Amino acid sequence: MKNFSHLDKKGKARMVDVSQKQATLRYAKAEATVKMSSETVEKIKKSEIKKGDVFTTAKLAAIMSAKSTSSLIPLTHPLKITYSDVKFSFLKDGIKIISEVKVFDTTGCEMEALTMVAVTGLTIYDMVKAVDRSAEITDIRLLEKRGGKSGIWKR
Q1: CATH class of 24-147
Q2: Closest listed residue to residue 81, CA positions, set 98, 64, 56
Q3: Full-prediction pTM beyond 0.85?
Q4: Domain ranges for the chain
Q5: What is the pLDDT of residues 40-84, one digit of tens each?
Q6: How far apart are the C-alpha atoms of 121 and 37, rounded to whole Å?
Q7: Active site includes 126?
Q8: Three-state DSSP string of the chain
Q9: Catalytically annotated residue among 8, 93, 126, 139
């Protein structure tokens, strides 16, 4: 069991001790897609979704979720987030979501970036489900991570 950082010597789950690690600038970028009909995409473009402004609501959900990640994902550390943002781009059959997170801390922020795109996707889904029951969230993945001992990783 010594190869798994989140398990103790008896195989029980534990939070990793990062108190001796060096605080450095860390960055993560993630993406997700919300697929939907082209008609629903057009309704969003024209602000015709009855629940309200899809992107403002989704952006607030993204930022709130980044700050709440350690409450949602077991064994993650609460981080001092110095920056988080989410951007949207239209696809013919959906919306691409890209999140970015920066921290100056002792552990990485990839879970925050991934949580952001997941919760943003759920928020968009919730906003459009009344007009498009076929909407689905797909392709949640980490695109990039920087900082700490492991350096830079890109998909």
Answers
A1: alpha beta
A2: 64
A3: yes
A4: 24-147
A5: 999 999 999 999 999 999 999 999 999 999 999 988 999 999 999
A6: 15
A7: yes
A8: CCCCCCECCCCCECCCCCCCCCCEEEEEEEEEEEECCHHHHHHHHCCCCCCCCHHHHHHHHHHHHHHHHHHHCCCCCCCCEEEEEEEEEEECCEEEEEEEEEEEECCCCHHHHHHHHHHHHHHHHHHHCCCCCCCEEEEEEEEEEECCCCCCEEC
A9: 126
